[in-house]
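Intended use. Records like the one below are meant for learning the mapping from a protein sequence to its folded structure. Do not use them to infer anything beyond what is encoded.
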Amino acid sequence: MAVLRIILTIVFILICIALTVLVLMQEGKASGLGAISGMAETYWGKNKGRSMEGTLVRVTKYLAISFIVIAAILNISRF
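Structure written out for the chain above:
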C-alpha cells in the first residue's frame, strides 16, 4: 500500500507542475473582447476549439479533474 501511495504522490506532483505550466501558457480572457468589434466572426474565432488554445483548455480540464481525484484518493488513504 505504501508503494501505491508513493506512486500516486509522484503522479500528483507531476500533474501539479503540468497544470501550472498549462495555465501560464494560455491566453488571457481579455483577448476575447474583440467580439464587440466583430473579430469573433473570423476563421480563427470560429475554429478556436481546434487550435492550440483549444487543446490547452481541454488538456487543462482533464488534468484538473485528475488532480481532484488523486487528491481525494491520497486524502482518503490517510485514515
